[in-house]
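look at this one:
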Amino acid sequence: MGELTEKIKGNANEAVGNSKQAVGKMTDNERLKRKGERQELKGEAQQLKGKVEGALGNDI
């Protein structure tokens, strides 16, 4: 169950991060752009965590 949850959270964070980056670029707001980059990386990490949990199964 944790695998799916982490993947969903990861997808959401990546999408929001990409949106923040786009708005930051359009408005020349470097702070918002950097926040978006960090949020996208967080989403990628959550995706990876979900994959690892899936590979390990219920052993964790």
About this structure: The two ends are 12 Å apart (CA to CA). The CA atoms of residues 13 and 38 lie 9 Å apart. The chain is about 85% helix and 0% strand. The chain has a mean pLDDT of 92.
